[in-house]
Here is the input.
Amino acid sequence: MAALARPLSRRSFLVAGGLTAGALAVPGIAEAAPRLRTVAPGDPFTLGVASGDPAPDGFVLWTRLALDPHAEDGLGGMPSKAVQVKWEVATDERFKRIERRGTATARPEAAHSVHVELKGLRHGRDYWYRFRTGDHISPVGRALTAPRTDSFGPALTMAFVSCAQYEHGYFTSYRRLAEDHPDLVLHLGDYQYEYKKGVYNSPGGNIRDHDGPETVTLANYRQRHAQYKSDTDLQAAHAAAPWLVVFDDHEVENNWAGYIPEEGSDTPTYEAFRARRAAAFQAYYENMPLRRSSIPHGPDIQIYRRVRWGKLANFHMLDTRQFRDDQGCGDGYKDCPEATDPKRSITGDAQEKWLIDGFRKSDARWDVIGQQVFFAQRDNTAGPVKKTSMDAWDGYVASRDRITKGWVDAGVRNPVVLTGDVHAHWASDLKANYDDPDSKTVGSELVCSSISTTGDGADSDPASQPFLAINPHLKFYNNQRGYVLTTIGKEEMKADFRTVASVRTPGSPVSTKATFVIEDRVPGVKQTYLRPYAAPKMSAKSDQNIIDQTIRNETQP
Here is the structure.
């Protein structure tokens, strides 16, 4: 690679690259970098670059060196010695005006990952960054600082995503998201999947395979993250804007809860699962643009946190896995008395208190809760019997009621819950009492589909989804892959539900299936656009067939 980076146009940069992970640099200090040795003949920046957790005066920069992302030992084909990595931050994408530069150390014990926490930058503006080691220069990434805490700043373009199963499809939605020029991206979990080749198959068959066995050891998780990070569509999305990330279950193991593994786990004992959690969290930190406050301590990691975007929005990023009680009644969709037990929690007491205290102190126009699993009630059975998902907030009704009451009592101006997990687009009003259709609407929920999990899916007519008839507060459903692109202003939050035609072939175009608006001080979602549905020529499915297929899509394997 040439000693100087090729100048990039804004568009070519936005679809270029992305990266992540572990050794730390002193924030905000530009060091005179020593002459750096060449790591190897190959390019070590195969995993791209990334930024995250923006503040008014800075953000986190990430990269991880890997000559061979598929190396079985998880170390990316790198030598077992520390490597010096230069970094630069500029106010222009051609790097003619360097704002800050320094050197960080990529260490083998952190899988040659680098985290640089920057402070002292100017608020509310774009920056560009890159890394260098030897003769090799990384792709260029774009980062932003948040507005000043006492100002709104311009409208915020924020996208949120979840559930990217590498085997089920190409990551085209990440590429299209980058081309939509977001200012901020929230990833709400299932960034990677733990299964070995052929275990979790999409309905149309898998189009590519996972490397290695099911992820259990640190080497396994490092290798899996590297395989995902080597995808250039994912790299493009990371390079486009800073990310706020939280994990769900598959970053460790399907449907885990606290220190309890799933039934039939490869790590069935407390000790084995504790070690697995520690390995998963270490690899997760190494591969994400997280601050040093999220460095894991064995099987524990601090991932719930609050990020402020001026006076416009507070982002409350939750952890609904690490502190939850076990799922009730053996998991699945059940009519389960444990679901209403007031002692049970999906967040744990400390996180619940932290969240409600944040509501009380908030003066933001929008309080956005970025989290993993469906918040609103979803009963799958008409009539008096209530069957709901034990893995979602329906399995922890008292938790949901306390948090909902918390934002109502605090007078939160505009509470909005963002959700992933269920591999389909949904929109919902949040109610004070879901069993009373006339109950007061007290918030809004937007749910993004998967990036690729369960394969293509199909376009659908929301009016034909039985869940919406059974649950009148549910307002929208679509079973295609994609993401949600929002524009957050002082008067409204607009959400475009973006879908790609196919994930089985690369390069699919994107379109908007529906647009919903949440108006300032008016809780609930209002549809302003719906793409017409062209029904395929096939026999109609019964309501029960549609319900069963919806549940299979979000719960298999």
The radius of gyration is 22 Å.
